[in-house]
Each structure stands twice: as C-alpha cells, then as structure tokens.
Amino acid sequence: MTSIYAAAFFCSTLILLNLVSVGIAMVRTRPKMRAAPTPAPAPGVSIVRPVCGLDNFCEETLGSSFSLDYPLYEIIFCVARGSDPVAPLVRRLIAAHPKIPARLIVGDEKVSANPKLNNCVRGWDAAQHDYIVLADANVMMPKDYIQRLLAGFGPTTGLVCSMPLGSRPQNLWAELECAFLNTFEARWQYAAAGVAGGFAQGKNMMWRRQVLEAGGGIRALAAEIAEDAASTKLVRAQGLTVDLVDRPFEQPLGRRSLRDVWMRQLRWARMRRKTFPLHYAPEIFAGAALPCLVAAYGAHALDASAFGVLGAAVLTALVWHIPEMILARTAGWHFSWRMPLMFVLRDLMLPIMYVDAWFVDNFTWRGNEMSVREEPSAHGG
C-alpha cells in the first residue's frame, strides 16, 4: 500500500502545481479592453530588430514596427549581409513610412558564436535613447507595444521581456507549436517568475541602457551561447530582476513542419540545460507524461484491469489538460478541436527532449552549426 499512497501523493502534488501555474498565467494574461497608457513624460525608446531571411508574415511583423501609438521612438534594423533577401523589404518599409525615424544597418560584428547577437551589436551602439528594445523580426507589435513593456518596470527591474505567443497556425504542426509556446512555455515562465524570479526571453527584451552598460555592454552577452541566458545572469548580478510583460506578444506562425517544431524545441531545451542546469532539472515534472504513468502504476498496484490502468492515465490527462484548455480560451489564445490532441502529443515528446538535452550539445540555427559547450568569447568574459 505504501507505493499506492506514494503514487497518489506524487500525482496530486504535480496536479496541484499544474493548477497553480495555470492560475498565475490566467491572472497575468487577462484580456484588457483598453490599450496600456503612455507614461508622462514618455521616455524615448530605440527598437533594434535583427533581420535574416524572409519568415512567414515577415512584411506584416516588420511593418508593425511603424504603427506604434507612441510619441518618441526610432527603429534600427540590422542585417548581416546586404545581399540578404529581407534587405529590400526593410528598405521599402522605411521608404513607405518617412515620418518614423528608421534605418537599416548592414554588417555585423563577430563577438560570439551567436549570429543574432552579432547582428544586434551595431544596432545597440547606434541607438539614441536610454530605453532599448531588442525584438526578433517575427514578433508582431501591437500599437501599445512600448507602453506594455514600460509598464513592466518596477523599482528593482533591470529588464522586461515577453515570451512569444503562437498565433495564426495554418497546419497541424503549427498548432503543435502553439501547444508548446502558449499554454505550456508561457504558463510555466509566469509560474517560474513568481518563484525563482523571471528569466529573460530573447524574442522581446526592453533594457534600460545603464543596466546593460553597467554589466559590460551588449558584448558581455557573449558570455553565454544564448543572449537571453546571459541577460538573466547579468541583471541578477546587479541585484535586479527580470520581469515579464502581461499579455505576451504574438508570433504568427503560418505553416510549420514537424521537424521544424521538434528541432526548435530541442535547441531551446539544450540551451536551458547548459545555461541553467539546476532550473532545468525539474522540467521533467512539467508535462503530463510522468503523472499519467505514475497514475497507471498506482492503478496496476491496486490490481486494476488493463482498462482500469488505462482509465487512470486518461483521467489524469484530463485533469491535467482541461485547465490548459480553459487558459487558452480565457486568454484569447489560439484554440481548436485539435489542440487537446496536440497537448497529448507535446507531453509525449517532452520526456524525449528532456533526456536528449542532457546528452546532446550540438544544434543548427539558421544554417549555423553551434554547440552549447562552446567557450564564451573574449568579449563575454
């Protein structure tokens, strides 16, 4: 009987933690009727957007940079090579919005093995304002984008971030990516922020210039293979916090392949394991696979039939995933009849990814062969 009680306690504890994480996310992502207000006086903001290649919805996401309802901001696009196919699009957008201060910087600075960081360095150096946003090209910026980032700053905040929120999936595998990004990763990031402090997410990072400069400047982010991990450590070293924006910003997905989703999640898992191994270790408990397996074991220990064992696993999965469904609906995130199936598939994939991350170091990102075991650059210390 001891093993049965242990199984019940284990499943109950994880289900409770799952419910708490959903509750935290529901509070942080409540839809609001009004746009975030502009502070008075409104500080100037520089938006640095590294670009590389043509992504799904690229013209729309980059174009959203010019439609912000904010009185004082500039946009700095950075591209490593002038021959990149995204460069003509950026120049066309700049020409179509002459009233918005914007420019394209061509050429990167090799400070690390991270091509995105290399692409941002010259943009950071050229920024005119004291609040600087580093935002990926595939982020959709709502009109109150800057206001919502600024609202995240408190007395001890060094950096405000937003995780990506998957939207507009156009096939099954893009919906699988929504299952990873939204009700799983965004939810657990909010929960982690309430327990261990926020972790930077490289999709959207608003810096106060003096914070990054006090830590060695943007080149100091070369200390880690992932610039967001380096950002987290740099901010915490100053006794400051990384805070998360309410209501994450969208990343429209379009079409995805299963390989795209799988390799992206593997890359992120390997980088989390390398940069924050102690925080990564308990991730095995974040999905439904383990509690479902333990529930099935408990039913088997009670001499249940095969149907009863399966029923225990299914019931645990329902108790686990129904709150996720409610979160997606109440937050206004993408949800379709296929999403519960994607939750199950995702949670079957998670243990494989978890084990992989402990043993595999290499990955490919935008054609660049990289390894989480690469030594930091001289700039990064």
TrEMBL record:
GO terms for biological process: glucosylceramide biosynthetic process. Keywords: Glycosyltransferase, Membrane, Transferase, Transmembrane, Transmembrane helix. Pathway: Lipid metabolism; sphingolipid metabolism; Sphingolipid metabolism. It is found in: Membrane. The chain crosses the membrane at residues 6-27, 280-298, 304-322, 343-360. GO terms for molecular function: ceramide glucosyltransferase activity. The keyword Transmembrane applies. This is Ceramide glucosyltransferase.
